[in-house]
Structures are given as structure tokens and as C-alpha cells.
Amino acid sequence: MATHVSQDEINALAWRACDTFRGAVGPSEYKNYILVMLFLKYMSDQWKDKLEEYQKKYDGDKQRVERALSRERFIVPAHCDFDFLYSKRGEANIGELINIALDKIADANKAKLENVFRGIDFNSESNLGETKERNRR
């Protein structure tokens, strides 16, 4: 059974997520990091929902599921979704993993996302601090 999450809980979670970048990233760049992560989460959730829907609809027929997914609004390649990246959050190279995922997503969605992630570097020492601090964020 699904747990109901209130709007206040969602707001509090979003605010805490934003706090991780506040003060570390300049105000002009701050919105870019937050919006990219929110967009990645949105795309990942949509992709996961469609994957489950198609697996049920096509009774697990992998080829039909992949074909249906290929027609979706956005393509999320393997190991590029928010859940995968979140599972790697303790890795020393998490910024690099995020950058790689964003590059793969942009390549898979060239017509729609070309240059959207340009200039966003989750491995940037100048924007996000030294490795230990950057990885904490």
C-alpha cells in the first residue's frame, strides 16, 4: 500500500536538497544544479513508471518493452537514472558519475536536450569545492 506524502513533507525535502548547494555555489549557478537534479529525478520517475507499465502490458517481453520505451518522450539510458546515481552517492567519483549520466542522457535525447546540460559540472572544484566537500553535496 502506498504511503501518502503531504505537500509540507515534499516542500521540506526539496528545501533540504536545495540547502546542500546553498552557499557553496554562486547564486547565478545555484539554480542550474538544482534544476538539473530535479529534471533528472522527474525523467527517472517517469521512465521507471513507464517501464513497469510496459512490463505488465507486454508480460515481460523484453523486446516489446524496449521498443515501447524507445518511443517515450525522454530516453533514460541504463545506469543514468536518479536511483542509480543515488545508490552511488558514497563513491569518491560521484560528480564524475553524474556528469557521465547527463552526457549519456543528452546523447540519447539529442533533438530535445542538446546543450541543456552544457556548463553544468558536478565535478567542478571551483564551483562545488574540494573532493570531500563536493562529494558530500
Tally of DSSP β-strands: 0
Q: Which structural category fits the helices and strands? A: mainly alpha
What summary fits the major beta sheet?
Answer: none
Low-pLDDT sequence parts: none
Radius of gyration, taken over Cα atoms and rounded to an integer in Å: 17 Å
* Helix and strand element order: HHHHHHHH
- Mean pLDDT reading: 85
Number of helical segments with 4 or more residues: 8
Distance between the amino and carboxyl termini: 32 Å
Strand content: under 5%
Shape: globular
The portion of residues assigned to helices is 55-70%
Tell me the number of structural domains.
1
Give structural notes.
This protein is mainly alpha-helical. It has one domain. It is 64% helix and 0% strand. The protein is built from eight helices and no strands. The longest helix is centred in the N-terminal third of the chain and has 31 residues, at 27-57. The protein is globular. The chain starts with 6 loop residues before the first helix and ends with a helix.
